[in-house]
C-alpha cells in the first residue's frame, strides 16, 4: 500500500455515469464521496444540475452536495481549501476517498492547486472590454482561437467571462493563457484519475433522455423560482441560461428545450476534451481492478476502511 492516502477521481462528461461509478467505488472501499460539480453545491438548484437522488445520497456519505446557498458562490480556490480540510480529517480513518464531478477546474484546484497568472494591466483589460463591446462573444472566441488554440479547444466557448479572463492574460503577458496552466502543487495524497467509458452516440442519447426527465420533474418551474438570481454566473450555465430568453418572449419553449439539449451535448464534448487524460474504464469492476493495481493489491484499500 502506498505511503500516501489515495484520492480516486472520477471525472468525465455529463450523463456518462460518474455518479454511479463513484458511489460503487466508495461502497467497495468503505469510504465517502466529495462532489466536484460546481452547481451541485447549491440548495436552490436540484433538477437542472442532475443532483444525485435521495437513494444515491443515502448509499454512502456525500459532501459538497446542496450544502450552501447560491447567494454564497463557491470559487474553485475556496472549494479546494474546504475539501483539503475535509480530506485531512477523512484520511485519519480511511486510506481512500472518492471525488466525483465534471467541473475540471475544481478538480484541478483540489488535486494540484490553482495556477498563478501574471498581473493584468489596465491596457490589457481595456483592450478586452473594447473587443467584447464591439464584436461580442464571437469576437472573443475568434481572438482566443488566434492567440491560444489549445485553451480554445477546452474552454466553454459560451462563457464570456472565461474568454475575457484568458484574453486579458494573453494581452498582458504576450503568452498563451494555457501556458500558465497545469503547474502541479504538492498534495499529501496520491490521485488516480478515471472516467466511465461511453461511446459518443450513447452519451448523446443519455443527455437527451436526461433533459426529458428533468422537464417531467419540473425543470421549468425550478428555473422560474430562481429568476431573481438570473444575473449570477452559476445560473449562466447549460440547463438554466436557455430559459431566460424564453421567459422574456424572445423564442418559444420548444426552442428553449432544443437549445438545452444541443448545448448539453456541446458541453459534454468540451468535457471529454478536458478529461482526455483520465483512464477510461468500462465498468465499476474494471475501475476497482485499476485502483487495486495502484494501491498494491485487492486487500490493500479495504484494510484502510474507517471503523
TrEMBL record:
One GO-annotated biological process of the protein: tRNA modification
EC number of this enzyme: 2.5.1.75
Residue sites binding ATP per the record: 12-19
Gene3D superfamilies: 1.10.20.140, P-loop containing nucleotide triphosphate hydrolases (3.40.50.300)
Catalytic activity from the UniProt record: adenosine(37) in tRNA + dimethylallyl diphosphate = N(6)-dimethylallyladenosine(37) in tRNA + diphosphate
InterPro entries membership: Dimethylallyltransferase, IPT, P-loop_NTPase
Cofactor: Mg(2+)
Coiled-coil segments on the chain, per record: none
Annotated segments matching region Interaction with substrate tRNA: 37-40
Pfam family, one: IPPT
Enzyme type, top EC level: transferase
Residues noted as binding substrate in the record, renumbered to the chain: 14-19
UniProt KW keywords: ATP-binding, Magnesium, Nucleotide-binding, Transferase, tRNA processing
Site residues, Interaction with substrate tRNA: 103, 127
Keyword Magnesium: yes
MF (Gene Ontology): ATP binding; tRNA dimethylallyltransferase activity
PANTHER family the UniProt entry points to: TRNA DIMETHYLALLYLTRANSFERASE (PTHR11088)
Similarity section: Belongs to the IPP transferase family.
Quaternary context: Monomer.
Function: Catalyzes the transfer of a dimethylallyl group onto the adenine at position 37 in tRNAs that read codons beginning with uridine, leading to the formation of N6-(dimethylallyl)adenosine (i(6)A).
Protein name: tRNA dimethylallyltransferase
Protein species of origin: Neolewinella litorea
Gene: miaA
